[in-house]
Design brief:
Radius of gyration: 13 Å
Number of strands: 2
Strand order of the largest sheet: 1-2
Distance between the termini: 30 Å
Helix content: 55-70%
Structural class: alpha+beta
Strand content: 5-15%
Number of helices: 6
């Protein structure tokens, strides 16, 4: 799955934005707790979004006990696609703010 496809979904963009704020990474439950969604997201849906982000190379996940903690692959993304993630997130935030 491609990076642009993975970032085409507003929920996945929200997840990536939250993960970028967390240097130590977040698990699904922590991330959805931080998102301001209009309705609760089932864990299976969250897992599906994370799978798409992982398979596209945007995030890396590692197991910590029973939890799967994920982080944005900043260095790798910036090396392959300089400025892409920042530009997409900036445009998305601008749309979220209505401007």
């Amino acid at each position: 799955m491609g990076i642009l496809h993975a970032l085409s979904d507003p929920v996945r963009l929200s997840i990536v934005a939250e993960l970028r704020k967390a240097d130590d990474g977040l698990n699904c439950v922590e991330t959805t707790g931080r998102l301001q969604l209009k309705c609760a997201m089932p864990k299976s849906t969250c897992s599906q979004h994370y799978r798409i982000l992982r398979e596209s190379g945007i995030i890396h996940s590692e197991r910590r006990g029973v939890e799967l903690t994920s982080k944005v692959r900043r260095k790798e993304l910036e090396g392959r696609f300089p400025g892409l993630l920042d530009a997409i997130l900036k445009a998305w935030r601008r749309d979220q703010e209505g401007g």
